[in-house]
Fold this protein.
Amino acid sequence: MTGLERIQETASGYIAEAERLEREKKPTDGLFGMGSKPADDPCHDRFAADLEAVINDIAAQGAASSEAREMLSFIYSLASEHREPVSIYWMLCAVHGLTMPLIGLLDAEDAAALSRDYASMFRRWERLPVQNNVYKTLRSKGKT
């Protein structure tokens, strides 16, 4: 299984589980501190931990810059494709910070192209601090 396939499998499992939780939620979940809302489910933390493990494993094994760019493009585009429900969107944005080991595999050309794509997907005023860090790292790597 390729690195991209591993990332896709991890992400699709998470998205399916999180969407199921959203579909099954009751209107009163989380109101007045009663019950739990889908955003509180441990699947979100599990996804982050699983994705981090996959990314670290791929980075340790090494990958060509073009492969790393493909994996990063996939991870970054997930948030753009899943803006609703917001609990999924924000988690898909938050995990961008886990991609630093893959950014280290990029050559300057791929980093520059990816930084342009990232800037168009996530406007400066909409980015989380972790996304600003990812963008700055991509831009810096693209200048070398």
